[in-house]
Write a structure and sequence with these properties.
The chain is α/β, with parallel strands linked by helices. It contains 12 helices and 8 strands.
Amino acid sequence: MIPDDHPEVRAPKVGVLLINLGTPNSPEPGAVRLYLKEFLSDPRVVEIPQLVWQPILRGLVLTTRPRKSARAYRQIWTEEGSPLAAITARQARALAGAFGENVLVDHAMRYGKPAIRERIETLNAAGCERILIAPLYPQYCSATTATANDEAFAQLRRMRWQPAVRTLPPYHDDPSYIAALARVTADGLKALDFQPQALIASFHGMPERTLRLGDPYHCHCRKTARLLAEALGRELTVTFQSRFGRSKWLEPATDKILAALPAQGVKKVAIVAPGFAADCLETLEELAIRGRETFLTAGGTDFAYLPCLNDSPAGIDMLRSIIGRELEGWQSRP
């Protein structure tokens, strides 16, 4: 017999925690500064000894970059707030009930809110004895996938009764991911009022040393692009964006390619961002706004940015497929 003062015993459940990079709470310099401080203090993101990096971060970066970044965020901010946060929340809602009534789907941000620690606590309090940590990064990199998992594991260290945990592996070459990319890209191209002479696949950049140190990111990006090109039946130009700092980054650089194409006779381009699970500052401002300006200023005539998978039917079907597979053995799939 259970004593009257025994804590409530909940029916066991399974949790799924979708994780994306993060975003400031508002497009104001103060909020952006807090976000950048957390993001750029992560040793997985900036692999410089902290004794060297922190004075640079606090003395130069955080006194100049927040105002500039806030202006960029204001250009893409919506009534729902940050596009990245809003879309990730919609993805989680779209997956609610997709794996059975005993599987709860939630979302978190590696930096900012909702925090990974907070959402794991919430899932645990709801009775989740098993949790799938699902970083939404198709291509593995230590600065993205690994740091999301790090933060989840750090929370587990604080818990007396830990849930069983699995992590979502990279899905850069998963057939359902490639099929979803091909479907959304093909539909986007058909909707254009011009025929692109070039289709660019822009991935987030990483310092070149990450390749030498063993990250498979560059290879994953190249394989995704190759498989997508095969599925579309057309050539793709692979580029890397979002350079930061003075070190050498993966090439070719997206902005340099956009600036060079018109002189080569390529005046009409479309660009996709296969490595992003949801549209964000890097796609909506860096590509769709600044990328367009760069290309048109260089002499281009037609430019289109094609949205990410986001919470499109194809994108949700893909997430349902790859997440459902990782839940096998934990929960019967409907």
